[in-house]
Amino acid sequence: MKVIPGLEGIAVAETDLSLVDGQKGLLLYRGHLVKKLAVSHSFEEVVYLLWMGQLPSEKEREDFQRLLSENRALPEHIYKLIIQISSRADLMTVLRTAISALPLTNDWPPTLEQGAKVLAVIPTMISCWYHQVQGTDIPVIRQDLNHTAHYLYLLKGQEPSEAHVRALNAYLILTAEHGMNASTFAARVVTSTQSDLLSALTAAVGALKGPLHGGAPSEVEEMLDEIRSAESAESWMRARLESGERLMGFGHRVYKTQDPRAQALRQISEELSVEDDWFQLALETEQTALRLLEEYKPGRRLYTNVEFFAAAVLRAVGLPKALYTPTFALSRTAGWCAHIFDQADHNRIIRPQSLYTGTIPQED
After folding, report:
1. With helix as H, strand as E and coil as C, how does the chain read?
2. Which of 96, 142, 160, 261 meets the CB 3.0–4.6 Å disulfide criterion with 205?
3. Banded model confidence at residue 236, pLDDT cuts 50, 70, 90
4. Which reaction equation describes what this protein catalyses (predicted)?
């Protein structure tokens, strides 16, 4: 056996859920270009695609949206749990705990209805923690708003603008699924033991909680906050590059060309830049950064990644940094559930080997 650290380059499953081609800059969900889905479909429609294998008809979309909207209320014991631990636990810890305590049965295989119930209630969990920390009241649950709009409504207490809904909807779609990443692999490993949906999702949230997986957009926002204006972008970034530091939001372990998710969010940013100066700052800073990266690191193929424009979108719609990774978890729950269903449908327990490097005693 040969040890492959991090399992890099090792395929552990066959799936038609998504294709991540880093050389061609290609991301597909069930055969659909994700950058097109992000600008022309709702988050609910894309979740349906991931879970059911095709985009929904109008009736299927309405039925699925109704299933989600009818399950938005927090069970009383979950509400009390979040209130009790919110003062001493970060939001990802709260999500991990609250999801594990949801009142779902341990069905095998996990069901689509179970996935919908979890996906529906995560925005409410996030907003419950947020309002408890802020000392404000959580708004009354509504069923007449779509998933993205209702999430923003729960945080702000008022209906969001169409521009903000469109921007966040694109972000949620673009981050809903991304192949066999660490959190998705964790979910599939747990599912392969024939454990339940909540156990698999709890493992996934625990993996996403790690800063190497889910924390980059806040660092991009900090960079843009320090730059402040397009005029100061070049001097700020030159100083950083000359000191040997990275520019956050550029380069990706997988994509060696343009990240298709960044392309889609750039399109949204360009359309909304007339309404929000933050988008304009991001667009101008990106162009300066790409020029300087080619100057300082020629041939390295460092392109804009999704975290760069994710920071622009999340900041523009008014989300505080504490909600960035939890919002990522909200969207990625769609992909996690899709992989859990896929693993259950073609199940074989995932049990890799290890090589022993210790001593072996001599037998008498």
Report:
1. CCCCHHHCCCCCCCCCCEEEECCCCEEEECCEEHHHHHHHCCHHHHHHHHHHCCCCCHHHHHHHHHHHHCCCCCCHHHHHHHHHHCCCCCHHHHHHHHHHCCCCCCCCCCCHHHHHHHHHHHHHHHHHHHHHHHCCCCCCCCCCCCHHHHHHHHHHCCCCCHHHHHHHHHHHHHCCCCCCCHHHHHHHHHHHCCCCHHHHHHHHHHHHCCHHHHCHHHHHHHHHHHHCCHHHHHHHHHHHHHCCCCCCCECCCCCCCCCHHHHHHHHHHHHHCCCCHHHHHHHHHHHHHHHHHHHHCCCCCCCECHHHHHHHHHHHCCCCHHHHHHHHHHHHHHHHHHHHHHHHHCCCCCCCCCCCCCCCCCCC
2. 96
3. very high
4. oxaloacetate + acetyl-CoA + H2O = citrate + CoA + H(+)
User: What is the percent of the chain with per-residue pLDDT over 90, rounded to a whole number?
Assistant: 79
Catalytic pick from 307, 339, 346, 363?
307
d(CA 86, CA 91): 8
Is the pTM above the cut of 0.90? yes
For the chain, list the domains and their CATH numbers.
18-209+320-345 (1.10.580.10), 216-316 (1.10.230.10)
Best CA proximity match to 332, nearest among 94, 55, 47, 27? 47
Residue type, 269: S
- Residue 243 makes CB contacts below 8 A (sequence gap 6+) with none
Cα–Cα dist 164/166, whole Å: 5
Catalytic residue among 150, 178, 252, 339: 252
Q: Which amino acid is at 52?
A: M
What pLDDT does residue 216 have?
65
